[in-house]
Each structure stands twice: as structure tokens, then as C-alpha cells.
Amino acid sequence: MNEAIDQLKSAIKAILPRSQIVLVGSFYYNEQTSSSDYDLLVLSTFPVRKSKQQAIVTRMADAKIEYDIHFIPKLFVCLNWKLVAGRDLDTGRDIRLRMTTRVRSTIRSTRIRMAYYYYLTQQYDKAVIELLRVRLLPYAESDVDLFSYAGKQQLLERLRRQFDEDEYQLYKSALSNRSNTGGKKIDTRLLIEKINQVFQGFKDDLFQLQHNLQYYAYSLKRGSLNPLVNYNKAITAALFHFANGELDESARQLSKLTKVTQLDEQLKEYALLSVLTIEN
Hints:
Elements: H1 3-15, E1 20-24, H2 25-28, E2 38-44, H3 50-59, E3 67-73, H4 74-78, E4 86-88, E5 94-95, H5 101-120, H6 124-136, H7 144-147, H8 152-162, H9 165-178, H10 188-202, H11 213-222, H12 231-243, H13 247-255, H14 263-271, E6 277-279
Parallel strand pairs: 2-3
Antiparallel strand pairs: 1-2, 1-4, 3-6, 4-5
């Protein structure tokens, strides 16, 4: 374990001694670059209060470390609302996803939603990577097949066999940009076309989740609550219509969940629900 991870672990354990800390992301898959940050999941029995989150940030204030920490109640993991693939920093054991039907459905729904989110925030490389994960899902045997790009040349050869030339070039550009091997401009027209295709193909089979605690908390904060609406379908459909310039229909979908205020900002907030990030 390197010094940076030791520092992060010590800061978290000082505030949350009973938490489980999991290393995820590029450092877990040993694919970090010079610009990579440390991604950690903190699994806790109860939701972590903002004051404790800030206390961890304060402890790390003088450390010159780039990091993201996601705080997740263990209940979310037990219910498959959150999927964990990484290394437990206490035991050193790897935690790997089992590609059950439920897990595949959860991954597909989340990645389609995030592909729209990154597209709308003009983070096109990330949007392409999320699209790629959806497209590789039928061929995935474990989380490594979706979240690791070790052996990029072998992956590119596989992509060339599985997809047409235009789509292959889309993924090749994003993977090249990701590894800092020469930036290439993303074809945004093709990107949104492909995201729309995967959404349309699975919109009636998205992960069913009637009881999303964070959606409830968010809606209560805004003064409305509709527990009978499928959260994931409504928010993904709203993102689809917004990305395609159909603002009235996007607002109608979003209004199923709660009263629409600032449509674009509310969409971004909904898209990122359950991803609680602290950045140094």
C-alpha cells in the first residue's frame, strides 16, 4: 500500500473507525496515469453526515493528493443499488462483481444515465466510455471486462470485430484520449446517436427501482414525493429528451418525480444522485 492511500485511510478511519474502505478505479485496476486520482468507497452502516465528510476533507487539507471519496450506506450495496468492485484496504481482499441478471441490469441503467449526463456536460470522452461499457455488457464475464482497459490493443482488436467502423473509431478515439496518447476529437453526432440507440433498445427493461432512498430525500427537500413512479425510467427518459432538444417532454418526464424548477440543473442533480463525491 503506498503512502497516499495510507494517508487517506488514516484520515477516514479517524472520523469513521468502523467504516469499510474500498479502493476502486484506475489505481485498483493498475491503469493509473499521471493525472489519475485515488478513488475510494467508504461503506458505512448509516449515511455519513456532511460534518463528518468535511472533517475528513479538513484532515487531508495539507496533503497534496488528488482523490474522490464516495460515501455509501452498506444497505445500498446489499440491495444492489450500488455495485462495488475493488480492494478492501483492511483485509487486502479483492471484491469482484458477479455478473448476475440483476447486476447487469443495474450496470446498464446506470451507464446509460451517466452517458447522457457526460454528454450534456460536454465530457465526451467519458460519455463514450460509458457507452462502451453498455455495449460490452453482453460479453462481460466480470467487472474487469467493463471497468479495466488493460491490454488496450487486444481490446481494440475485439472492438473492431464486434462493431462497425464508425463506432469502432469512436471508442478508439476515447481510449486514446484517456491514455494521453494523442487527443482525437469525438464525433458528438455519432455519440448521441449511439447513446439514443442503446436507450431505445432497453428503455422498457431498465433496472426497476421503486424505492430509492436518495430520490426520496431529494424529493422531500423539494417539497414533493411520488413513490409510485419508477425513478430510473423517468430520469433516463428525461435525459434522453433533453439531450435531443425536446425540452417540454423532458420536463414532463421529470415532473413525474417532483416539481420541475430549473430543468437543466435539476437533471444534472438527478443524474448524479447516489454519487456523493468529495474532491480535495
